[in-house]
């Protein structure tokens, strides 16, 4: 599976904001991300917790379309992922 | 209602409707018997076979009729694997094949075989070199590649894949369901699957063609119908109607496909111009003439279908909320494109420019309203 502009860049950085979108269906996790990404400083990381399989594909795709940076998607032990996005502008 | 879901099923061609009604009287008898009405049914069946064979570039004795395109794909995949069992148990497929092919592949895997899936680029096409490398590796028994993708329209490099298969001595199954009757069938296939209701024939007729010399063995219990390839009494009237529809659409395909393709170009450019935050998906040039797909950020796919239905448009979506499985389309996932807010517009024969314009006029407001309801301000 391709994952947008994913690279290791920013991989070690702790998230400045965590958005809990567990149990929410797409596009709601993306809407929450779009509404809150400007709450963190530029270059900071937002972690989106989501378990809708569409979010796994769509958050990296959103990053590509919006010129933000998909850092990585980590599987959560309880199911779903923590999807890390770096605010680019 | 403007019907823009031809990739699901094309409305019955008027000539096919006429032929079907006539054939219910002329072709009802058992074509395997030897009395008058049976011989007549046999003659009509063989005439239909010859006509379909001619359009797909096959010999009549290479063509069998199945109960559906899905059955043609299942029998094509499993029968070719069984015929090549001594050569190996490795199956190569693209990641964006129709679920009929992928489900047959899953059965092969459950049965102890292996499946190698070749990924696609952002436009939805396999890389011919990667596909060729997968085919050439190990003891590959069969490779499968669609002519065009059913969700995004992107054409696959079938000619290059066929050349790689020929070099490796591996048969190639081409699922041509989206292009038969709309575009010439790409050369180089060993097994071909197609579906009559996609070209304006009735439902209940699929086409399985197996090239002479290609090893194939039925995975099903023995039956002597359709050259022992497909079990069960043939639906002769529907097969006759399917052949009539194919002859009619193929005769007009060059002109009509060019017209529909121009309408698709218009949709591709206008949607990008009038709808903010939209991703138009699939290859803009190397594509089936009638399919265009795009995804709208922050939009719920089901809400989009409901609103467009209310506005008088029949379209479909690959978004997870519109699927019985609640998973996004495997095609969109494999491409790495946006899966929510997804819309597939596929134009049937005769789709009017006026209906397309009306769709393009309605769409921006529908998208804007759904976004506002979801709390996304422009």
UniProtKB/TrEMBL annotation, chain A:
Molecular function, one GO term: transferase activity
Coiled-coil boundaries: none
Annotated ranges, domain UPF0033: 18-87
Record-listed E.C. numbers: 2.8.1.-
A matching Pfam family: TusA
Origin superkingdom: Bacteria
CDD domains in the cross-refs: SirA_YedF_YeeD
Enzyme class at the top of the EC tree: transferase
Keyword terms of this UniProt record: Transferase
Family: Belongs to the sulfur carrier protein TusA family.
Name of the protein this chain belongs to: tRNA 2-thiouridine synthesizing protein A
TrEMBL record, chain B:
Domain (Aminotransferase class V): residue spans on this chain: 3-359
Keywords: Aminotransferase, Iron, Iron-sulfur, Metal-binding, Pyridoxal phosphate, Transferase
Cofactor: pyridoxal 5'-phosphate
Domain of life assignment: Bacteria
SUPFAM superfamilies according to UniProt: PLP-dependent transferases
GO molecular function: transaminase activity
Reactions mediated catalytically: (sulfur carrier)-H + L-cysteine = (sulfur carrier)-SH + L-alanine
Family recorded in the similarity comment: Belongs to the class-V pyridoxal-phosphate-dependent aminotransferase family. NifS/IscS subfamily.
Protein name (record): Aminotransferase
Organism listed in the record: Streptosporangium pseudovulgare
Organism lineage: Bacteria, Bacillati, Actinomycetota, Actinomycetes, Streptosporangiales
């Amino acid at each position: 599976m391709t994952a947008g502009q994913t690279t290791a860049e920013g991989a070690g950085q702790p998230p400045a904001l965590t958005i809990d979108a567990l149990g929410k269906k797409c596009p709601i996790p993306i809407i929450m991300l779009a509404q809150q990404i400007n709450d963190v400083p530029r270059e900071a990381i937002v972690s989106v917790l989501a378990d809708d399989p569409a979010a796994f594909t769509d958050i990296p795709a959103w990053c590509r379309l919006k010129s933000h940076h998909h850092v990585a998607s980590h599987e959560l032990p309880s199911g779903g992922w923590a999807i890390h996005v770096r605010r680019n502008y | 209602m403007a019907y823009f879901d031809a990739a699901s099923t094309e409305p019955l061609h008027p000539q096919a409707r006429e032929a079907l009604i006539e054939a219910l009287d002329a072709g009802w008898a058992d074509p395997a018997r030897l009395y008058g009405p049976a011989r007549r049914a046999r003659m009509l069946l063989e005439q239909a076979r010859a006509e379909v064979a001619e359009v797909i570039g096959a010999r009549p004795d290479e063509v069998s009729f199945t109960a559906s395109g899905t059955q043609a794909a299942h029998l094509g995949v499993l029968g070719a694997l069984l015929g090549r069992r001594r050569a190996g148990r490795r199956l190569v497929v693209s990641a964006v094949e129709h679920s009929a092919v992928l489900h047959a592949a899953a059965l092969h895997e459950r049965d102890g075989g292996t499946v190698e899936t070749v990924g696609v680029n952002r436009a939805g096409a396999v890389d011919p070199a990667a596909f060729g490398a997968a085919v050439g590796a190990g003891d590959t028994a069969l490779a499968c590649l669609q002519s065009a993708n059913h969700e995004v329209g992107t054409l696959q490099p079938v000619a290059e894949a066929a050349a790689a298969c020929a070099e490796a001595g591996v048969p190639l199954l081409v699922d041509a369901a989206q292009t038969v009757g709309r575009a010439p069938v790409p050369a180089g296939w060993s097994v071909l699957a197609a579906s009559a209701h996609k070209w304006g024939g009735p439902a209940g007729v699929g086409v399985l063609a197996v090239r002479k010399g290609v090893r194939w063995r039925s995975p099903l219990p023995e039956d002597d119908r359709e050259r022992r390839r497909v079990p069960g009494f043939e639906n002769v009237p529907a097969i006759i109607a399917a052949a009539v529809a194919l002859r009619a659409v193929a005769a007009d395909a060059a002109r009509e496909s060019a017209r529909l393709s121009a309408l698709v170009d218009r949709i591709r450019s206008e949607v990008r111009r009038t709808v903010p935050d939209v991703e138009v998906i699939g290859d803009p040039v190397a594509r089936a003439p009638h399919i265009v797909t795009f995804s709208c950020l922050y939009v719920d796919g089901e809400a989009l279908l409901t609103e467009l239905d209310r506005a008088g448009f029949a379209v479909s979506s690959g978004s997870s909320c519109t699927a019985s499985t609640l998973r996004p389309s495997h095609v969109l996932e494999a491409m790495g494109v946006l899966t929510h807010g997804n819309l597939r517009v596929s134009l049937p024969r005769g789709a009017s420019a006026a209906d397309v314009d009306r769709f393009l006029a309605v769409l921006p407001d529908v998208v804007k309203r759904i976004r506002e309801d979801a709390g996304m301000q422009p």
